[in-house]
Amino acid sequence: MAEEKPADGGAPDAPAFDTSVAHIARIQDYWLGGKDNYEPDREAAEQAIAALPDMVASVRNTRAFLARAVRFLAAERGVRQFLDIGTGIPTADNTHEVAQAAAPDSRVVYVDNDPVVLAHARALLTGTPSGATSYIDADIRDTAAILDAARQILDFDRPIAVMLIAIMQYVPDESDPYGVVRTLVDAVPSGSFVAISHPATDIQAKKMANMADRLNEAMAQTITLRSHDQVAAFLDGLDLVEPGLVRAPEWRPDDPALASTPSTMWSGVALKP
């Protein structure tokens, strides 16, 4: 198995983190059926489920969207480079696993500033002998640091898929989330792609608002829900791949019956002309 050092050159040593306060990475891990979570995480996760009973199905449909999007980009569009920002705790069908299964020479850079994820970074730093994987410890808002480090692994003269799966809701409006995405898109060449998934204000609106309020009370991170039009604005100037910006299970489902399963996430893939 090929292994790379983190792109910032440091070692992915496990940091200390506070297990007495709920953390979104561990909450997500609980929803996905993982074991890397603690009682405060489980309590917050169950509070969210109480407000939005479709939460677990929605989260798992978002994870399935990630796998389908990566497979589509690697197998059908010939993308060999992936910049996955907001990695989360490793689980099944991580980006490098899906990409390198379709194209063993794929190169994948993960980005997260979450100490919980950093503690698991070594699980992400594996890959095929002909490909590469790396991990950057950085906040999504620090685009200069991300791009500088990613250039150590990725060739910015060739297409790159920027994966923004369930991450932009943690960038509040006052931190210029659209500027963050625009900077990333401007840095990659024509023929690159952006894949995005974002929780909605306009799907099960009251339940979603209640869910967000409960999570925002329980954890240090803050969630900002956005409408279809607001999520679509992240992709301004790009060409949406069919079927466009839709609920996660509606995006090229492996089985048409899955398209009607629960989701509160707007999801799509777009090409940089």
Automatic annotation (TrEMBL):
Protein name (database record): SAM-dependent methyltransferase
An example Gene Ontology biological process: methylation
Signal sequence range: none
Keyword annotations of the record: Methyltransferase, Transferase
Keyword Methyltransferase applies: yes
InterPro entries the UniProt entry points to: SAM-dependent_MTases_sf, SAM_dep_MeTrfase_SAV2177_type
SUPFAM superfamilies attached to this UniProt entry: S-adenosyl-L-methionine-dependent methyltransferases
Recorded GO MF terms: methyltransferase activity
Domain of life: Bacteria
